[in-house]
Amino acid sequence: MTTYANTSYVAKNVGTSASTLTTVSSGTIAVTSLVVANTTASPITCDVYITRSAVDYYIVKSATVPVGGSLEAIGGNRVVLIASDALKVVSSAASSADVVVSVLTAV
Fold first, then answer.
1. What is the pLDDT of residues 4-34, one digit of tens each?
2. Degrees to nearest 5, angle at CA 50 with 101 and 6
3. Which domain holds residue 42?
4. Which pLDDT belongs to residue 63?
5. Share of the chain above pLDDT 70, in %
6. What is the domain count for the chain?
7. If you ran DSSP here, which 8-state letter would residue 16 be given?
8. CA neighbours within 13 Å on the CB side: how many for 53?
9. pTM higher than 0.90 for the full model?
10. CATH code at position 62
11. What is the mean pLDDT of residues 54-81?
């Protein structure tokens, strides 16, 4: 039977350039939660996507994150990433978001 370990990744002050949260080196990982928090005094929008074979696949596109609020882009379901996939996030404003990702990895 396969055993799984919980792992998390974080990104601080995500801005207008894509921030790679994780890249799968081998095997697969299951993303169980991804939360984007707005750290500014204005609403922001964000994109969360997977890059696979140089093609971007959006989980959310231009989603609004209110002042003092957060967006749970992945929750309740799992998104499975395969080898070489990169999980990325970008915001509409410089240094405007913190991101927390929880994943399960096979050990």
1. 899 999 999 999 999 999 999 998 999 999 9
2. 30
3. 4-106
4. 97
5. 100
6. 1
7. S
8. 1
9. yes
10. 2.60.120.340
11. 96
Structure tokens belonging to residue 40? 């500014």
Structure tokens given for 65: 């994150």
Alpha-carbon separation of residue 10 from 1, 48, 57, 79, 98 (angstroms): 29, 14, 21, 17, 7
Neighbouring-strand partners of residue 81: 29
Grade residue 69 by pLDDT with cuts at 50, 70 and 90. Answer: very high
Find the distance separating the first CA and the last CA of the chain, reported in whole Å: 11
**What are the tokens at 86?**
């990169």
Cα(55)–Cα(77) distance, rounded to whole angstroms? 23
Going from the C-alpha of 32 to that of each of 8, 16, 81, the distances in angstroms are 10, 25, 11
What is the average pLDDT score of the chain?
A: 95
Rounded Cα gap, residues 7 and 95, in angstroms:
24
Residue pair 34/72 in contact by the 8 Å Cβ criterion = yes
CB 38 within 8 A of CB 94: no
Give the DSSP H/E element, type plus range, for residue 35: strand 28-38
